[in-house]
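Run log // design_07
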């Protein structure tokens, strides 16, 4: 008798093999279907991300017209900026922006500040926009001697923009989307001095001027300032006044004022007279004239203080104008004006802090090249005035 396996046992193998082949075919078909589905999903996802700017994509064109304000902070890197631009939907990806910036020859010239950009810009367009000064917002360049309010200059028959106007223009984000001069004047005249950034050494004088927006005269320095154009009028003024106070204090303002016998606010007021009266190179001499007159005492009699609140202004003034009693007219009042009459430069501040030595009580510019004569006696001064008149410097156009 055979001891091998029964035939039935041998016939079981083919059935088992067929079931195995069926399962393998079913498994293979399932894998293939899954692979196709995954491929479709991946392709659809990649296409969606590409249209949205994902993966390594980029938007096309110069934006969709929706303005966005972006700050390039002092000391920030291109990498920091790429993250900000991507999060705000301005560029598609950080990689796209970094690639465009790194390949641009002028990317290293990008300056801190606020910029008007648009959503969905190509990376290259975003870089170009950031390098175009026309897209800066909240950057104001204040010339030396500028006043808060606009002034009409008789000689040239033009209007010199005041600080409030310059700030308003610099605040514009879009067409008509600006902080108005009226809003700035209201904030300057009605807000608490501390909320406007006024330093302690000027708080009493500013507070005493009531709701006159000119109470902040002289407290915003000339030069370039940057502010958030999306801020309120009061916030903008506060940032500029605070920054300006720090600039003034860096000169040693408080200690220097004490040394020359003035308060810090009085020193800035005197420096504003220098700014408006003295030619370049003579700032320290005019500073000495101011201190000598205060010591005498004798009135300043500066035409710039007569002009300060006049609607029409020029170098020469009339007898009628000089007779008006105002908070600034030093022909009609003793001492310094109640407030500065313009924004003095740091050069004018340091001249007042370090006046020249001399006995002068008078000075007058005698020609249109700015030559100025400093004299000690009234008789000498009268001779200098006649020379000035002869040269057309004091010839009134009114």
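design_07 sequence
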């Amino acid at each position: 008798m055979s001891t091998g396996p029964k035939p039935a046992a041998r016939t079981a193998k083919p059935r088992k093999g067929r079931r195995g082949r069926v399962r393998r075919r079913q498994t293979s078909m399932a894998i293939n279907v899954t692979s196709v589905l995954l491929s479709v999903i991946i392709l659809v996802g990649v296409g969606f991300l590409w249209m949205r700017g994902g993966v390594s994509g980029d938007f096309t064109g110069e934006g969709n017209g929706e303005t966005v304000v972006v700050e390039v902070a002092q000391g920030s890197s291109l990498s920091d900026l790429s993250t900000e631009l991507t999060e705000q939907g301005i560029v598609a990806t950080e990689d796209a922006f970094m690639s465009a910036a790194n390949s641009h020859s002028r990317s290293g010239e990008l300056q801190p500040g606020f910029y008007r950009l648009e959503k969905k810009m190509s990376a290259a367009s975003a870089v170009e926009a950031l390098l175009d000064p026309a897209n800066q917002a909240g950057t104001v360049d204040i010339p030396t001697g500028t006043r808060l309010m606009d002034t009409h200059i008789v000689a040239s028959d033009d209007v010199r923009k005041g600080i409030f106007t310059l700030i308003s223009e610099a605040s514009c984000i879009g067409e008509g989307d600006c902080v108005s001069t009226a809003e700035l004047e209201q904030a300057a005249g009605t807000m608490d001095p501390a909320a406007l950034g006024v330093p302690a050494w000027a708080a009493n004088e500013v507070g005493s001027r009531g709701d006159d927006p000119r109470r902040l005269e002289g407290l915003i320095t000339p030069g370039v300032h940057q502010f958030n154009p999306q801020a309120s009028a009061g916030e903008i003024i506060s940032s500029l006044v605070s920054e300006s106070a720090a600039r003034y204090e860096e000169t040693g303002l408080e200690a220097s004022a004490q040394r020359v016998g003035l308060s810090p606010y009085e020193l800035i007021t005197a420096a504003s007279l220098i700014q408006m009266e003295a030619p370049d190179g003579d700032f320290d001499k005019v500073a000495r004239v101011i201190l000598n007159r205060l010591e005498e005492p004798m009135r300043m009699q500066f035409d710039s203080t007569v002009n300060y609140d006049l609607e029409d202004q020029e170098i020469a003034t009339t007898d009628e104008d000089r007779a008006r009693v105002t908070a600034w007219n030093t022909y009609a009042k003793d001492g310094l004006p109640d407030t500065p009459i313009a924004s003095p430069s740091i050069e004018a501040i340091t001249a007042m802090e370090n006046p020249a030595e001399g006995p002068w009580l008078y000075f007058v510019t005698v020609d249109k090249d700015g030559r100025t004569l400093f004299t000690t006696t009234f008789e000498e001064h009268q001779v200098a005035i006649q020379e000035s008149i002869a040269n057309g410097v004091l010839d009134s156009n009114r």
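Residues 7-52 form the longest helix (46 residues).
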